[in-house]
Specification:
Elements: E1 2-9, H1 13-21, E2 33-38, E3 43-49, E4 55-66, E5 70-76, E6 83-91, E7 98-106, H2 112-121, H3 125-142, H4 171-176
Antiparallel strand pairs: 1-7, 2-3, 3-4, 4-5, 5-6, 6-7
Length: 180
């Protein structure tokens, strides 16, 4: 499965690249990335939680590192979900902003997990990466991700699909708080 998306962020290339280069920041805007722990100068350990609650872990290495321009990576070893990707950071024509173009490729295994992942993503897998880049844009431009009432507790609310139309939370929902 190949995912691609692009956005323009009103921040200089060095800031956008720097935020992404600190891989532990990816979990703040990528929906299914739970944690990334650097293990070396170009290596890291990734943990993801699928929409079905299945935990995936793999090691990755940076492959194409061009400061303030591009980052590439690939999974190494025995990854349950082999993957690779690249993100480019280009100055936008306005001279202030950064154009971000991301590509991610996943090898969906022929297992039961692979079938579930394929069915879940359906015809619109690029929307997931597009939404991730939109959250990155919000973080870098405003300092936070704006949440709808359908997901008032951010990533912890994954079990709340589908979202309902915007409306205030009920007293019971406020009392329950974020799901554990």
């Amino acid at each position: 499965m190949e995912l691609w998306a692009a956005t323009t962020i009103r921040q200089p290339v060095s800031r956008v690249y720097g935020h992404w280069r600190h891989l532990e920041n990816l979990s703040t805007f990528m929906t299914y990335i739970d944690r990334i722990r650097p293990t070396g100068e170009r290596t890291s350990h990734w943990t993801a939680i699928t929409p079905f609650g299945h935990r995936l872990e793999w090691d990755a290495e940076l492959t194409d590192v061009v400061p303030d321009r591009q980052l590439g990576w690939r999974s190494v070893g025995e990854a349950e979900l082999p993957n690779c990707g690249r993100v480019r950071f280009d100055p936008a024509p306005d001279g202030v902003s950064t154009e971000v173009r991301a590509l991610m490729v996943f090898v969906i295994p022929g297992t039961e997990l692979g079938g579930m992942i394929s069915r879940y993503f359906g015809d619109t897998p690029n929307e997931l990466l597009d939404d991730d880049l939109h959250r990155l844009k919000q973080i870098l431009e405003t300092g936070e991700v704006v949440l709808s009432d359908g997901a008032p507790w951010g990533k912890r609310s994954r079990k709340e699909f589908p979202q309902r139309p915007a409306q205030p939370l009920s007293a019971g929902e406020l009392a329950r708080g974020a799901p554990a």
